[in-house]
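S1.2 Input.
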Amino acid sequence: MQWRTPNFNFVKWRRVAMIGSSVANLVAIAAIVYGMNYGVDFTGGVVVEAKYSGPANLDAIRTGLEASGFQSVQVQNFGSTSDVMIRLPPIKEGSTVASVQDQLLTVLRATGPDVEVKRLESIGPQVGEDLAQQGILAMVFALAMVFIYVMVRFRWKLALGAIVATLHDVLITAGAFAVFRWQFDLTVLGSILAVLGYSLNDTIVIYDRIRDNFRLMRRGTPEAIVNASVNQTLSRTIITGGTTMLTVVALFIFGGDALWGFALALIIGITVGTYSSVYVASSMALVLKISPQDFVETKTERVDELP
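S1.3 Output.
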């Protein structure tokens, strides 16, 4: 069965989509500024991995730790019901890692005498702050490289459109974690960087087709050319997004708590990235008044001087 190119009028709804995207981005920025629920990777703290012989009672562990003086305790399974990950705030002044470990073992053995502490790692606040700064620098550097690459390949108008679409996806994904107070750690930051690459790839495919159609469909209006380009790449967008989403959803369901945030960020990012490629990136091309002249390669002819 041969795929027939659809003829959906995406351009008709571009203003509604841009208004909705602008509102969503403002909400995301406000939520991020108000405060993210950062994990110990950024705030500093103690990470403990423990293993029980049978299913662990998370409520009993959490209650015991809070009764022992630990505050802001996070207890969750990872991998299996007998494996437990515990996140504690930074070690207070006057305490040592050894004293915290002894206190922790006392609480854990009360919930299961055969418990085994497999890892206990302390991350200082300064280390967490450095990680946050490096993560922001990595994202800024990636966006700068994206702008330079697209500008060289498509000219500045589409480069600006690609940056706006990519920033849109990053803000919405991070904003969702801020709004719903999901924990934001290094794995989530890594998935957002992956979303950046995924969104750019989808946008480049549509921009490639827009460039080709501006050279072929010389009598069409910019709106008609952009709309035709989005429809022509729609099958590729659906197939790529659908197959990627199947893998990510499998990670989300079967990957356990350790991969929960990573997979959730990818699910949000792929969904938003597909939307932004169709509406935000293509709409930005029209907002910047893209025209056939933007894709015409000017050639200078050499004129020999007459003797």
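S1.4 Remarks. Confidence is low (pLDDT under 50) at residues 300-307.
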